[in-house]
Amino acid sequence: MTFRQFAYNNVLRNKRTYAAYFLSSAFSVMIFFVCALFLFHPGLQQEVMYRSAVLVLWSAEVIMYVFVFFFVIYSVGSFLRSRKREFGILLLHGMTEKQLRNLVFLEHLLIGAGALVCGIGGGLLLAKLFLMAGSNLLGVPQLSFHVPWQGLLLTLGAFSLLFLIISLCTTMLLGSHRLIELFQAEMKPAPPPQASLVLSLLAAGLLGISYGLAATATASNVLTRMLPVTAMTIAGTYFFYTQLSVFLIQRIKRQLDYYWKKTNLITVSSLAYRMKENARMFFLVTIISTVTFCAVGAFASVNRLADQFEQDYPVDIAYVAKGDSEAEDEHLEAIRSELGSRGIAYRTLSLPIILAEVVSSSSSNTLDRLPLLSFTDYKRLLEAAGIAVSESSPKDGEALLLLGSERERPQLLQRKPVSYTFAGAPELTVHEIGISQHVALPENLTPTTGDDREGSFSGLVVSDPLLERLKAASAEEGEGLGMDRFTGFYVDALESTRGLAAELTDNGRVSYESDRPYAMTVSGTLAEVQRTTYRALLFFALLVGTVFFIAAGSFLYFRLYSDLAYDRRQYGALSKLGLTDKELARIITRQVGVLFFVPIALAIVHSLFAFKAMQSLFNFSVAWQTVLILASFLLVQVVYFFFIQARYLRNVKKAIR
Asked: What is residue 312's predicted lDDT score, i.e. its pLDDT?
């Protein structure tokens, strides 16, 4: 038998231990390859949303690749620790340290090569299915079966490099080669688990505070709380497993009526050891699962923002000429000509947008200019879009925040009202009294106003007499007011404007802050880009989330089977003392259940509070998406639990009999 054959046989002999790791790696390769198929597919490159989809796809590829690297490093380190006795036997029989390192290198190179081949092979077999599902979810024409050489080369190159680096790293993870340590690795008794009361209280405090901050978050402070809440949750989770869980189990042991009842003695006595030994694995599974739940749930919720599109873009084609733009007439004529060539009937509306210079305001954010719109013009904009106006005009000295997007409403509702005075009329003070009921001007058509914390808006809606007084006072003082000109085109179906005026916009939009002499939005193009981008985010979040979730399951599988030899000896001894098969099944079910469901249960609790905080950013409920996502992942975990529990119980019984 050659050295390579010996390495190959070693992999086969440990196939049960390596199974979950191998399948997780192969699945990661397959999903990476599927993303590459979409990234380089010529059919998708012709779509309007391709540029935004490229960003999503590359982000998914990078996130997945980095995660797989650390997942493989952690798994390999765990596998090597579980095989110390085997390495001791090999060294005892004359294998040199160099040969041992070469053996480990070849073994992991074989596993990596096998995962790469199986992953790409699975991707090729299921490529058509993924392309069909992706096309339907993205809402693009059916993508034909096509395997771009760039995607195949990217996958081969990226994962060949990854598995080569990991195989080289394994030789540095072998650690001590002292025979006495290698042979006693599995037999060395673990010290009794101890828990610190201070650290246990710290765990409870960190989790309690983070949950409280998440539950009471508002649209105005949720972003500032995100980082400290995340940090406290991560730290609290770690101390929960290493300290608080052991502390609670020790308290349970003092409840003798429960502890001495039937098989509870066996279950509880080993539970503290398992929690302490598996603390790092529990911590990783909990954090990975929480990230998966939150990512998929967040993108599923964000996808609903597409339902608000028509409210955010009442003008089908909006054009704002900055100041005395010389290109205005040429651009408007080009738009009219293209609408006519497509046979699209349209209505137009033009009106001025006043830009007033702000002298002072009660806000800490300094503003140079503030767009002002008269209430009459506000009504004209809404009526042109077919929206009934039920609002009353602001009184003298009052103003409504001109809403730029419905998603900004929750933050603006938390905003502290601000007062303004303007150049040329310092005696005129304007106070914010609320928010407009509707979006009249789409966002990005006026100078940026507001901030990320309190929300942004498109300007102020003031009464007609107040605006006239401001104009007159400014004219008397010789200050003058800046003025942009809005022109809107209204059609019967916004889908008909998809791709219109492509040479004037970037994917349907030119923001006011750009260096061009105009700002512009094309609703049909923006609707297509937004819809497909949100769907792409959800689709690839599901793919990447599935990779994360399967990796978490792989951790659980390996941790369970690493204790198999010890459990066989323990239950074998107990069976000789009269432990029945029914009692054995009950004990194993409880122990495996703790291993599988404690991390998932804590991840679900983390996610629920995260979704509660996220709810403050939306104008609609995300409860349905939350329940659906969490229930789906929990159902998969239950199925996985029963499958593994049955196999594990069968393996333990084989050794006893």
From this structure: 86
Return phi, psi of residue 202, to 5°: -65, -40
Q: What phi and psi values does residue 284 have, to the nearest 5 degrees?
A: -60, -45
Residues 6 or more apart in contact with residue 314 via CB below 8 angstroms: 381, 382, 385, 387, 438, 439, 440, 442
How far apart (Å, rounded) are the C-alpha atoms in residues 637 and 629?
13
Q: Which helix (H) or strand (E) holds 280?
A: helix 279-302
CA distance 653 to 572: 8
d(CA 375, CA 40): 50
Q: What's the token pair of residue 65?
A: 């690749």
Nearest to 138 by CA among 528, 433, 475: 528
Q: Nearest CA to 147 among 136, 170, 131, 135?
A: 131
Write out the two tokens for 370: 């503030």
Q: What confidence score (pLDDT) does residue 49 get?
A: 62
CA atoms lying within 13 Å on the CB side of residue 263:
19
- With a cut of 60, say whether residue 472 has pLDDT above it: yes
Average pLDDT over residues 510-524: 89
Contact criterion met (CB below 8 Å) for 206 and 221: no
Mean pLDDT of the chain: 80
For 455-467, write each residue's pLDDT tens digit.
788 889 988 888 8
594 CB-contact burial (10 Å; exposed 0-12 / middle 13-18 / buried 19+):
middle
Sign of CA dihedral 570, 576, 577, 579: positive
Residue closest to 112 by CA, chosen among 62, 156, 64, 173: 156
Determine how β-strand 455-457 pairs with β-strand 449-451: antiparallel
